[in-house]
Amino acid sequence: METVTERNFFEVTWGKGYPPTEKRGISLEDLVFSNEWELDNAFIQRLKAMDVGEKLKYSDLSGDVFFEKMVLEYNPARKNQTWYAIEMADGHVCQRPATDLVEVVKQVNKLMRAVPYYEDDLVSIKKMGTKENNDA
Fold first, then answer.
1. Mind listing the pLDDT tens digit for each residue in 50-79?
2. Taking the CA atoms of the chain, what radius of gyration do you get in angstroms?
3. What's the angle, vertex CA 68, arms to CA 90 and CA 136, rounded to 5?
4. pTM of the entire structure?
């Protein structure tokens, strides 16, 4: 069973074709679930398979974007948040923090839109408890 966690973290650098943009750190989950990124599933699978320090180039009509897998350090903003495990029928488990039930539903919706999944693909949502930090 695969678990997507915040440990899948990337430093993103924009290259040729894009205006000068500062490097940015982003989690794999944010790459998958945010509306800002529209990466194809094959590229996301390649990101998941990367080792720390490895770089991968993504090219589109605008230009090149480079992803380097990093080690995520402790993030005090996520300290003591309640975490939930969202399990899908294919065995995919996504761990996400949420402050209330509405936030849990939003996380489930993001997951289902990104892959895409259907309502029958949702197996369970389990409250995991509070993590002291996001490396736990």
1. 877 788 899 888 899 999 887 654 455 555
2. 16
3. 55
4. 0.50
